[in-house]
Amino acid sequence: MSEVDIRKSLLIIVTYNSYLQLPDLVDSIRKFDRDDPGNYVVVVENSADLRVREYIVANHNSEKVLVEVAPRNEGFSHGVNLGYQSALNLWGGFDFVVLLNPDVISAGPTVCELVNRAAGHPSEVGVWGAVLTDPAGKLDRGCARRVWNLRRLFSHLVGYDNLVKVLRTAPRNLSEYEIQGNQSELAMVSGALMCIDSGLFGAGLNTLLPMYLEDQEICMRSLAEGHLIMLYPDLVAVHAGGVSRKSLTDHDRALRIMELVEAPVQCMARLQGYSALSLRLTVFLGGISRIVAAFLAASFKVLLRRGGSNQVAWMLEQQRLGLWFALWAIKGAIHDEEVSLSDYFLEYAPRR
């Protein structure tokens, strides 16, 4: 088979404080590398841990695997784009780009099958995904999503998923039944494990925010360009989740605002046409409602003698989140220029 005939696929993995996940990750890299002669891998290490390169090279030294140590951590989307450009310079163009989080466990066979199916699927699909579950087998909420609307955003901010039923709109996340039988409203799959047509991927992921927006944006980009989103219900991987974020506890407020508020707001404002005023009002009401709902829920459980001090701690945590949301609605930024992760952290750093 000539080089022209070889399907070329690039697997990009961005690591951050992920050294403990390397044995499993290297196993996935090895399986992907060996599955097809056109499969390549680039790992971008965002925490400047030189042990990552040493470990991967020592356990799977391949000319089709590249490990880049980023000069500094600018977030997931920047890391992906850095890896993509490095791979282009070294190996030339690709047909598919695959994103894999280091906390997706034993993902090698699923990643290989996802790319193989994408290669055989009609060209009207732009993004392919797999079903993700947590280690207990519960469906990962981010692996199959509808587009945002104001009622879904409000329910998301209050923290009660079933609230959407009262507000007479479908939930943000597709149910297991819908994933299996009716994906007509599927709009987004998870960036933790995602295959993207390289023509759609273009120069890379959106970097307006360092994290949490990019998988939403690439899926909305696909739909805007007339391409479908496809989720394979029989391809399943376990997503442990939160490995990188747990190592950034000093920046909890910034990360929570970015993930829970600004990422959906950016998606709705820039990609769906919602006004900034309607979004800020929804965020403010969602934050205040979260504060009230947490008090009522905790009080009820305390009256029933369920939890006691644990319920009080939970209530205070939820009310803190609600306060952050409300304050963001009043004076928080909706960024209109690319912002680095370090600069985002500085915006929410305690004032001295």
What does this structure look like?
The protein is α/β, with parallel strands linked by helices. It has 2 domains: 3-145 and 186-241, Alpha-Beta Complex (Spore Coat Polysaccharide Biosynthesis Protein SpsA, Chain A); 247-347, no CATH class. The protein is 47% helix and 15% strand. It is globular and about 65 Å long.
Summarize the SSE layout with pairings.
Elements: E1 9-15, H1 22-35, E2 39-45, H2 50-59, E3 65-69, H3 76-91, E4 96-100, E5 104-105, H4 108-119, E6 125-133, H5 150-158, H6 163-166, H7 176-181, E7 193-197, H8 198-201, H9 214-224, E8 228-239, H10 252-271, H11 276-303, H12 309-331, H13 341-347
Helix pairs in contact: 1-4, 5-11, 9-10, 10-11, 10-12, 11-12
